Structure formats: C-alpha cells, structure tokens
Amino acid sequence: MTPGKRDRSTYHHGDLRQAVLTAALDVIAADGPAALSLRDLARRAGVSHAAPAHHFGDRTGLLTAIAAQGFGLLADALDGGTSLADRGRRYVRFAAGHPAHFQVMFSPALLRADDPDLTAARERAGAGLRAGVAGLPGTADARTTGIAAWSLAHGFATLYLTHNVDDAVGALPPEEYFTALTGFLTDRED
Hints:
Blueprint: H1 16-31, H2 38-45, H3 51-56, H4 59-78, H5 84-97, H6 99-105, H7 116-134, H8 142-161, H9 166-169, H10 174-186
C-alpha cells in the first residue's frame, strides 16, 4: 500500500448497514444470537471494528434492527393474504425462509422494545395478521381468535424450525403441511 493511502476495504463499504445485518443473520442462523460479536461482524463485513457500533450502537441495537427488518419482511409476506388460512401459510413460509429473523423477532429480552422502527414494523405485521381475523364471519372475540390463530401458525413454525416435526413434514414445503394440519383441525366432525 502506498504511504498515506488507506486500505479502502477496511474503512469504506457501499452499504455497511446491510452488510453487517447480513453477516449477523448468517451467524444467528448457524450459531444463534448469543454468538454475535460486533467485532467479528466487522471482520466478516471487511470494515473497521468500530463501524458496526457507529450504525447500531451496540449488540442490542443490532438485534433490534434485525427484528425491525424481520417484522417488515413479515408484513410484506402477509400483504395480499386472502384469508386467515392464507395468512397462516404465509406466516409459516416467512418463518421457514427467514429463520434467523424469526428467532430474533420473538426474543423480546434481546431487543429495545421502545425502538420506533421496531414498533412501526411490528404494528404493520400485526395489522396484517389481524386483517385475517377480521374477515371471519361471526367472530365474537376477535382478539382471542387472533391469538389462537397466531399460536397455531407460530407454534408450528417454531416446531418446524427446531426440527421437532421433520418426520411428519418430510419433503413437503412447511406451508403445505400447515395447510393440511389446519384443515384437519377445522374440518373434523365432533
């Protein structure tokens, strides 16, 4: 390197924020959120060790940004859902496609609950879920019905991501198995 010139790969990055988020998601997918280190993420992204702290402040800020991004992606996935069942399938498909986001999004102890980006993204995703319940005829208690539906989709997604239903799901896409599961529960005669 020429004297007086900096190695550009160690201090400049086209989209540092997204590069660090992507590196963090890779770490979370492989080893969980406890394995995150801002210094290691800087190394992975090829930037100075202080660069991630400049964008996120600290580890909690980074995890909060991941959760906000995840809730935004979930809201996008729910957009256009035609029914509660369709939104449930979209929820499961989102979880299967974004397991690291999903893990962080629902770990409130890791996040800054009052973060405005997180709050807005969480509300947008929640509105997408509530819209599915609003379309149900004769729902006396929409909140309880919504929690029941969310519990089913979230519970199945969690079981799927933690490999507790691998034998049952087999080679089926998880949202197809979820459809069969919900049909079994709602179409049974007592």
